Amino acid sequence: MTPTRNSLHKALANPQLGAAVLRSCNHSLAARQRVMSELENLDELRNQARAARQDMLYHHAELMSRFVRSFQNAGGIVHFTGDAQTARELTVRLLRQRGLSRGVKSKSMVSEEIDLSSALSESGIDAVESDLGEFIVQLAGEPPSHITAPALHKTRAEIGRLFEQKLGIGYTDDPTALARAARIHLRKRFVEAEFGLAGANFLIAETGHIVIVENEGNVRMGTAVPRILIVLTGIEKVVRDFSGLAALLQLLGRSATGQRFPGGINIIRPGLYREDGPQELHLILVDNGRRRIMADPIFKEMMLCIRCGACLNICPVYRTVGGHAYASVYPGPMGAVLSSLFGPNPEHHRELPYLSTLCGACREVCPVKIDLPRMLLTLRSGTDKQWIEQTAAEAWRYIMSKPERFRLAGRIGRHTVRILPETLAGGWLKAEEKAYRDKQ
Questions:
Q1: Residues 330, 338: contact at Cβ < 8 Å?
Q2: Residue 74 lies in a domain
Q3: Do residues 80 and 200 both lie within one domain?
Q4: CB neighbourhood size of 135 (10 A)
Q5: Is the model more confident about 392 or about 34?
Q6: In CATH, what number is assigned to the domain containing residue 104?
Q7: Phi, psi torsion values for 96, nearest 5 degrees
Q8: What does the pLDDT look like over 383-437, one tens digit per residue?
């Protein structure tokens, strides 16, 4: 059994997991809908955000050159790395050369992508996650299950037991008490941190600024207190100027967490801190397949992604099985595409494009209008299961072409559901049938 199939079976066998994921996704979607409905110019704003990201695609070399020049002129140090291994080795080498072994880390999907935590641990370097969700999954020894809500799959009771075991506090499932316990534990780590590690949401070409969005204040602490700061991010994060950034920030918070604006926006640059704070600011720019994707006429659109996670929250498959079922760093619809393209061995994730109903909901909620279903279909067409897709499509077209055929298929389907095993299809269809009957 493949890792993906094994993960799927585990997820489907855990109803508590499914309930926790669905509850969290529904909450995020409801909050998103509420704040998006307030925007009278939503479609115009999405077009502006998409244009800002497309500008990066069409003028990447120019924008990156301008950013690097501005960043270096201000005193920053830029490192370009071709693959995940090079990025890992460089980060470890920078810390070892300076004799640093204890630090704090802000949320960074690129660090997850290159498996930085394992490399640091193997080198005897202790970097504690300071984002609350990332801190929880780090304590649990698990990977994140969502790109913006890493511990979405865990219930309050599970987190309470985890904190009782790992932090030595009395058991509680009160969210306020749990957050307070994490804050007390992390406060000392911030003060003692010898280095900080962070990701980046955007890079401003015009001025050389790094933009990091957060909600908890941990990024501000992690980037302002340590004497050396290392930021890791993908080469696609560059934006021309602050006017392009404005539309992106208005949509990022709304799409990711249902906030009108992110709780905190850190705009940092070398030389920002004089006596206190980082005296060295290193930026590690990671390729890991990104240049290849940017040059691909079919998949370059994926580089527009701003990692909001909205496509995960609305995806029927993700909502059923959660992020760990994808057995990849990036889950959900966007992850099914990215994981099939990134790195030297994308073929390891050939099954991921099939974890989709192709309903198109991911395309509708994407703040920059990425056509994810089109790319998922293209990835499927490159596998030996293409004939199955074609046959299913032909059968669907035949059934839908006449009302009597559709009604007959419906009657057959209702009888078939009763004898299906409790697999993804069987369990899902039976639940849908029960919900339909309850409404009648």
A1: yes
A2: yes
A3: yes
A4: 25
A5: 34
A6: 3.40.50.10420
A7: -65, -45
A8: 545 555 556 666 766 787 788 888 888 778 767 656 655 554 555 555 555 555 6
Burial (0-12, 13-18, 19+ Cβ within 10 Å), 347? exposed
Amino acid of residue 357: T
Give the number of other CB atoms < 10 A from CB of residue 173: 14
Residue 424: per-residue pLDDT: 45
Average pLDDT of the residues in 270-286: 82
Give the residue numbers spanning the domain of 426: 402-439
- Predicted local confidence at residue 270, as pLDDT: 87
Within-domain flag for 251: yes
What DSSP line would sit under 187-245, residue for residue?
A: HHHHHH-SEEEE--SEEETTTTEEEEEESSSHHHHHHHSSSEEEEEEEGGGEES-HHHH
Last residue of a domain, one of 291, 307, 334: 291
pLDDT tens digits for 173-209?
999 999 999 999 999 999 999 999 999 999 999 999 9
- Asked whether residue 271 is assigned to any structural domain, the reply reads yes
Whole-prediction pTM: 0.85
Find the distance separating the first CA and the last CA of the chain, reported in whole Å: 41
The string of DSSP codes covering 331-381 is -HHHHHHHTTTSSS-GGGGTTGGGS----SHHHHH-TT---HHHHHHHHHH
Coil/strand/helix, residue 81: strand
Residue 186 covered by a domain: yes
260 and 406 part of one domain:
no
Amino acid, res. 274: R
Give the residue from 255, 270, 291 where a domain finishes.
291
What total number of domains does the chain contain? 2
Q: What was the pLDDT predicted at 105?
A: 96
Neighbours of 428 (CB within 10 A): 18
